[in-house]
Amino acid sequence: QVQLVESGGGSVQAGGSLRLSCAASGYTYSSYCMGWFRQAPGKEREGVAAIDSDGSTSYADSVKGRFTISKDNAKNTLYLQMNSLKPEDTAMYYCAAERSHPATVVAHGFRFGYWGQGTQVTVSS
Asked: What letter would DSSP give residue 31?
């Protein structure tokens, strides 16, 4: 059973930084593309970033140059470093895993995969 547990969300002022973490278990870590999507109230989910087993990454245009996705295979842990945060980054952020390619899962927001309970990120102006 795939289990994904996020941590690291919180409240920050615009221009600040946060790092999200996701502990993964219950599946062959290296066989899935992993990443993050977010959803704000009343809005569609948005794929944020993804990384596959060989380290290839993909990012939404809205976060390119500000967010960095990485993973520690030894710890089965995924990270999202978020810098230069903006109020429009405010959302629930979900860690997700799906058997696909990074660009594909970012485009559809990991719609066909597994995801965790989410962690809230709030950016104030």
From this structure: G
Q: Are 35 and 48 in contact (CB under 8 A)?
A: yes
Report helix, strand or coil for 124: strand
The rounded distance, in Å, linking the Cα atoms of 37 and 84 is: 18
Backbone angles phi, psi at 29, to 5 degrees: -50, -45
Angle among Cα 38, 8, 27 to the nearest 5 degrees reads 70
For the chain, the C-alpha Rg in angstroms (whole number) is 13
pLDDT in the model for residue 26: 83
**By C-alpha distance, which of 88, 94, 82, 80 is closest to 38?**
94
* pLDDT computed for residue 120 by the predictor: 98
What proportions of the chain, in percent to the nearest 5, are helix, strand and coil?
15, 50, 40
**What's the DSSP call for residue 44?**
-
74 SS3 class: helix
Q: What is the mean pLDDT of the chain?
A: 95
Asked whether 98 and 123 are in contact (CB, 8 A), the reply is: no
